[in-house]
Design a protein that fits this description.
alpha+beta, 6 strands
């Protein structure tokens, strides 16, 4: 999709940290909907291309920019590399999705927080009221 107006827009992480430029767009062949922006990370990461899920992009046509809230430059560096020969399968899409998660959400299962318990509550017995 080479004639799209968003191609060439600058991509920013956390509002002001330039991370790359939109090179192209991937469209779902079945639905015709935009799926990903292909972002060239530029010279700072030797021209690595990555995928940006369209739902994470906030596009401003007036400013010719795309903002990705919550993305850091470090996360961008660690995104799975994309190229035209790559098979875009479910495993790859899961890797892309996981890479956009905040660092504190990367562990698989977090224990539930423990609520403080009043020691007096431990010594009481719960009773059920019989319906009248």
């Amino acid at each position: 999709m080479r004639d799209c107006a968003v191609i060439g827009f600058t991509v920013y992480a956390n509002e002001d940290e330039k991370v790359g430029t939109v090179k192209d767009i991937l469209v779902d062949e079945d639905t015709g909907k935009f799926r990903y922006l292909i972002v060239d990370l530029g010279f700072w990461i030797f021209g690595k291309e990555v995928l940006l899920p369209i739902e994470r992009a906030r596009v401003s046509a007036i400013e010719s920019r795309v903002d990705v809230e919550g993305l850091t430059k470090e996360q961008a560096e660690n995104l799975p590399q994309f190229n035209d020969d790559l098979k875009l399968d479910r495993d790859y899409e899961v890797r892309v999705s996981n890479a956009y998660r905040p660092a504190h959400n990367k562990t698989s299962i977090q224990p539930a927080p423990i609520a403080p318990i009043d020691p007096m509550v431990l010594n009481t017995t719960a009773t059920l009221n019989e319906p009248s």
